[in-house]
């Protein structure tokens, strides 16, 4: 299996059927998804299942001990898992991005060293480097740095083997991506059980109290200032945004699959009761069929935009350092278009789909509310209005979107 320096598998080189493994994982997660979500326990068992399946190391280059999967495959795996369990799909998607973050921000030697260690230890990654988080403070000291501060939200803080966080260099304020071992003294994870959705994403606050950081674990700059990041490094933003896209589409498709099975065997709540026995199956309510049709169109339109954005991103990653600013901007805009469509589709589907079931959709035994809660929790962290403004400014003025990493 051959893999390029930026982790993109050559066409036809893959030997592992990652989608088959992902479907098996999704089937496994689906069997007790409602019970696990309602219990809200830390997803230690779920991460163990991901580790055993090999999915945690999928995007790492084969020569570094990883699965050699490309981003197209990784996105498909995230979406497949999210169909069955949105929170675990979200956890896996953030793991993929954060475990690959050194490729964008660090030099090649350092990135290869980190990915080799990660695959050898089968690390699960968490954290967050969103631009709207109050920065932690990274203070130089002899032989490295000390990290201090509180991060309001980071994924996987309760179960991660490594965290990637955003910190400001003391004295200059330059934002940096920093790799942290959560087992170090001074790292204190806060509560992760107070969100009404994504209860199994192990997200929450985390405090850093004089945590030692080696100089080699400062991955690189996150500065949005012009000329600091190369166009290739700036692809980190659309790469992360397309993780969000796959999560939203997976959750929406998961709920659509649930209500389709329900609608095939149960009477629509909108249809008057007929006293005569049904000959073969419940009569089909034309109003319910219209809702199914509308939501299918919304889902497929968002999916088509996502595919277009993924195609553009994969081409950009293959170009590597030859990518120019205009090409990077186009990829970023396509990712923002896809994210806007996916967020709106997920919100509409997870709200309106329950209407075709009616009052029975509120029953806790079905657990259908988890789809809406997972989606709404996610979209609250990243309002779609910002993406729409960027798309509009690019359309009207040709303005390049600013470098901004999502939550």
TrEMBL record:
Coiled coil: none annotated. SUPFAM superfamilies: Acyl-CoA dehydrogenase C-terminal domain-like, Acyl-CoA dehydrogenase NM domain-like. One of its GO terms (biological process) is L-leucine catabolic process. InterPro entries: Acyl-CoA_DH_C (IPR013107), Acyl-CoA_Oxase/DH_mid-dom_sf (IPR046373), AcylCo_DH-like_C (IPR036250), AcylCoA_DH/ox_N (IPR013786), AcylCoA_DH/ox_N_sf (IPR037069), AcylCoA_DH/oxidase_NM_dom_sf (IPR009100). This is Acyl-CoA dehydrogenase. One of its GO terms (molecular function) is flavin adenine dinucleotide binding. Residues 23-100 form the Acyl-CoA dehydrogenase/oxidase N-terminal domain. Keywords: Oxidoreductase. Residues 244-378 form the Acyl-CoA dehydrogenase C-terminal domain. It holds the Pfam family Acyl-CoA_dh_2.
């Amino acid at each position: 299996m051959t893999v390029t320096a930026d982790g993109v598998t050559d066409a036809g080189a893959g030997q592992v059927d990652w989608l088959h493994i992902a479907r098996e994982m999704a089937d496994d997660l689906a069997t007790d998804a409602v019970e696990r979500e309602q219990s809200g326990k830390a997803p230690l068992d779920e991460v163990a299942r991901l580790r055993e399946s090999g999915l945690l190391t999928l995007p790492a280059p084969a020569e570094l001990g990883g699965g050699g999967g490309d981003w197209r495959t990784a996105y498909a795996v995230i979406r497949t898992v999210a169909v069955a369990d949105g929170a675990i799909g979200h956890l896996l998607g953030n793991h993929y991005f954060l475990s690959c973050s050194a490729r964008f921000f660090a030099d090649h030697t350092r990135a290869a060293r980190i990915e080799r260690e990660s695959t050898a230890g089968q690390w699960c990654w968490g954290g967050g480097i969103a631009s709207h988080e109050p920065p932690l403070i990274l203070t130089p000291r002899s032989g490295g740095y000390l990290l201090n501060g509180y991060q309001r939200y980071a994924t996987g803080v309760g179960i991660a083997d490594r965290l990637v966080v955003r910190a400001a260099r003391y004295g200059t304020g330059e934002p940096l991506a920093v790799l942290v071992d959560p087992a170090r003294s001074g790292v204190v994870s806060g509560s992760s059980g107070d969100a009404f959705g994504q209860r199994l994403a192990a997200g929450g606050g985390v405090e850093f109290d004089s945590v030692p950081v080696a100089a080699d674990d400062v991955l690189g700059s996150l500065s949005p200032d012009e000329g600091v990041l190369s166009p290739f490094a700036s692809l980190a933003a659309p790469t992360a945004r397309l993780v969000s896209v796959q999560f939203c589409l997976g959750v929406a498709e998961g709920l659509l699959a649930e209500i389709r099975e329900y609608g095939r065997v149960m009477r629509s709540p909108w249809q008057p009761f007929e006293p005569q026995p049904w000959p073969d199956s419940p009569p089909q309510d034309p109003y319910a069929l219209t809702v199914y049709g509308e939501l299918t169109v919304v889902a497929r339109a968002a999916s088509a935009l996502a595919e277009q954005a993924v195609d553009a991103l994969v081409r950009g990653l293959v170009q590597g350092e030859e990518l120019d600013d205009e090409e990077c901007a186009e990829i970023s805009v396509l990712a923002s278009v896809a994210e806007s469509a996916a967020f709106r589709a997920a919100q509409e589907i997870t709200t309106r789909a329950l209407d075709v079931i009616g009052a029975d959709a509120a029953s806790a035994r079905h657990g259908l509310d988890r789809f809406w809660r997972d989606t709404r929790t996610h979209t609250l962290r990243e309002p779609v209005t910002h993406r729409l403004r960027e798309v509009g400014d690019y359309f009207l003025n040709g303005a390049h979107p600013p470098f901004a990493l999502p939550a």
